[in-house]
Amino acid sequence: MGDEPRSTTGDAVAAVVLPLVLVIGVLVPIALMIWRGVSPDVVACQADVGRFVAAETTAGGLLAPPMTTVRTSVASVMVTGSFSARRDSPLVIEYMSQSGLRLCVAGTRGRCVPVEGDWAGDLQPTAVAAQAFDFYSHGLTSRALVGWLVIGLFVFFCGLITWSLNSTDLRAEGHAGQGKGG
Q1: Domain housing 100
Q2: Residue 82: CB partners within 8 Å, gap ≥ 6?
């Protein structure tokens, strides 16, 4: 009758906090990753940035990729990585629902590079803009979701280990106390 482990305040807190951390820190980012994965990455907005004039690439740093300044007939755009196109090729800036801004050669597929920073000009919404959820503007990038998941798993496992060690110590103290008094 006296061998049953007694419930502590820590057990009660763990019974509430651990499932909450599991849901918010692990299951929510996994659900968002799945939703993001099955949703199409569509061109939500775009703008004409003129015709290609020249590109000048600077070497990246130790952990930084190379940067390229693309000069067009209308503006200069800084992009990540290298970029090349035929002289006078029409260029557009596209805002993608999952990956943000990118500079593209108009009318071609796969000839796009990410834009560094924001675009100061106007972006015109496309016909598919209303149909797709804008993950990027809500901060739901793949990198952010993976970070959220890693932190959630870390906090969950730390809480689980702390609760487990606390419960084991209390049970050991309970059994040790019974042996001395009995």
Answers
A1: 43-133
A2: 55, 57, 66, 68, 113
Does a structural domain hold residue 123?
Answer: yes
56 or 16, higher pLDDT: 56
Q: Mean pLDDT, to the nearest integer, of 139-159?
A: 93
**Do residue 115 and residue 163 come from a single domain?**
no
Specify whether the CB–CB gap between 58 and 66 falls below 8 A. yes
The reported pLDDT for the residue numbered 78 is 94
9-21 vs 142-181: helix crossing angle, rounded to 10:
160
- Tell me, yes or no, whether 120 and 69 share the same domain: yes
Q: Please enumerate in sequence order all residues whose Cβ is within 8 A of that of 77, keeping only pairs 6 or more positions apart, or say none.
A: 49, 69, 70, 91, 93, 103, 115, 119
What is the token pair recorded at 132? 């797709």
* Residues 47, 129 within the same domain: yes
Contact between 54 and 37 (Cβ < 8 Å): no
